[in-house]
Amino acid sequence: MIRYAKDIWGETLKTVFSYAKAYKWPIAIALLLMLVELAVELIQPLVIGKIIDDGIIAGDAGTVWTWGAVMMGLALAAFASGITNSFFAAHAAHSFAFDLRAAMFRKIQSFTMSTFLRFPQSGLLTRMTSDITMTSNVLYMSLRIMLRAPLAAAGSLIMAFVVNPKLALFLMIGVPFLVIFLVFMVRKGVAMFGRVQRRLDRVNRVVQENLQAVRLVKAYLRGTYESSRFSKVAGALRSDTVSAVRLMELILPLLLFVMNISLLAVL
């Protein structure tokens, strides 16, 4: 059963992100520019080290100005790469969302009545609006931040071994703990945000039912009951959303804590 669910989940993701293939070149350019930004961040400490060791300590002003100019050029390259990356990432993500939403709308229009009745209208509204928006945001953030973080971590470890292999071994102590922690948090987060989506479906359903039957609600003086009913489902959505967001907010502090402990071990 679990394997079947994973297969369905994988096929769903494959189908959804197949609409991004039309924008493979903007995505590739955005990824390349992100790597340029990342490379500048990783090279910057080496340039600063050159300025201090060969320039300031040696009293060579020419070396300071030369490497300072190199550092300024790298900063400008990273700045230009970041702006251009945002442009291509936004273009790919929003164009992808437009195509996906249009395809979903056409698919819903082709439903037979029996097929249409299998899905609640509130769920279809959620899929067409917030779900596609969040999928678009995932693609955008992947091209801007999400893929950059693991690459930065891997690149930092590689540069640490280049600079001082012995001290870099201390940083490797926390890596297994970080991997286990991230896997656990991702699985927990997927489950919690899935529950948030179901709560959102329920809120949409209650709102839709009230709008469709607004005259009956007023005629039978059911306003107080419907208000309490909405407050209940909205409160459940708020509670689950806050819990899911707080769980995600724990990731960065705990990652920094482990990394700082590793640095203390080095010192």
Automatic annotation (TrEMBL):
> Per UniProt, what is the membrane topology?
Multi-pass membrane protein
Q: Which cellular components does GO assign to this protein?
A: plasma membrane
Q: Where are the transmembrane segments?
A: 23-43, 64-88, 138-161, 167-186, 247-266
Q: Enumerate the spans annotated as ABC transmembrane type-1 domain.
A: 28-267
- SUPFAM superfamilies under this entry? ABC transporter transmembrane region
Keyword Magnesium in annotation: no
Query: From the UniProt record, which GO molecular function terms apply?
Result: ABC-type oligopeptide transporter activity; ATP binding
InterPro entries xref list: ABC1_TM_dom (IPR011527), ABC1_TM_sf (IPR036640), Type_1_exporter (IPR039421)
Q: Which Pfam families match?
A: ABC_membrane
Keyword Transmembrane listed? The answer is yes
CDD domains, per the entry: ABC_6TM_Tm287_like
Location in or out of the cell: Cell membrane
Write the record's keywords in alphabetical order, separated by commas: Membrane, Transmembrane, Transmembrane helix
Q: Which PANTHER family does the UniProt entry name for this protein? A: ATP-BINDING CASSETTE SUB-FAMILY B MEMBER 10, MITOCHONDRIAL, ATP-DEPENDENT PERMEASE MDL1, MITOCHONDRIAL
In its UniProt entry, what is this protein called?
A: ABC transporter transmembrane region
